[in-house]
Design brief:
With about 210 residues, this protein is mainly alpha-helical. α1 packs across α4. The longest helix has 27 residues. It is globular. It starts with a helix and ends with a helix.
Length: about 210
């Protein structure tokens, strides 16, 4: 196994571990029976990420290198670093807020909504895979590579920025992991805005459980 392959696969596994720590520490539950929605999401995310990474290792290692140079510190322009910083915070919030919802019992999401959300994640990953296959210059940072050309085939024939469009599936998915959908599906009044009325001492007691 090459150094790039090892580093890429290790990065996926480390990301899964960090995501799991954030989700389950915040939720206060680690077993599948207590928070199966999060386990299903984490398994779907990790397994598809591994398959995508293995594909790039075998078929486009140069693209894999470009994809691994990402994050706020990798951007050259200050404005892009700021954007990526807040994008990273938004990603973390997509893990923390549903876990808080689960812990504090703000809402309940029907089984079919959870499955639909995980299906959206899989579809989003599939379109991202199509982007990788069609455009070898899909860098994780804003840059223009030598000999890079405008792509108009594959998913680019449907939407100008298919990578961003695919990411909407992940954003929608968070509402199925246990967020505020109970307010919609069950017309409950115990939504986050009403939760403010709960005594903070009571909320503190829940975190200590």
């Amino acid at each position: 196994m090459s150094g790039l392959a090892f580093k890429a696969l290790l990065s996926v596994l480390l990301l899964a571990v960090v995501m799991g720590l954030i989700i389950f520490t915040t939720a206060g539950h680690w077993t599948i029976g207590d928070y199966w929605q999060a386990w299903v999401y984490l398994i779907v995310f990790t397994v598809i990420s591994l398959f995508t990474t293995i594909y790039l290792i075998r078929n486009d290692p140069e693209l894999l290198k470009r994809r691994m140079r990402g994050g706020p510190t990798a951007e050259k322009r200050a404005s892009q670093r700021v954007i990526m910083f807040f994008t990273s915070l938004a990603f973390i919030s997509l893990l923390v807020v549903p876990a808080l919802d689960h812990r504090l019992g703000w809402s309940t999401v029907p089984f079919y909504v959870v499955i639909a959300g995980d299906t959206l994640v899989a579809i989003g990953f599939y379109f991202i895979f199509l982007v990788y296959r069609e455009n070898t210059y899909t860098s994780a940072t804003i840059e223009v590579a030598a000999n890079q050309k405008v792509i108009e085939s594959g998913p680019y024939s449907l939407v100008r920025h298919p990578m961003y469009a695919s990411a909407t599936g992940f954003a929608i998915r968070w509402t199925a992991m246990q967020p505020f959908q109970g307010c919609v599906f069950h017309k409950r009044t115990s939504c986050p805005r009403v939760a403010k009325a709960q005594p903070w001492a009571e909320i503190g007691e829940r975190f200590q459980r």
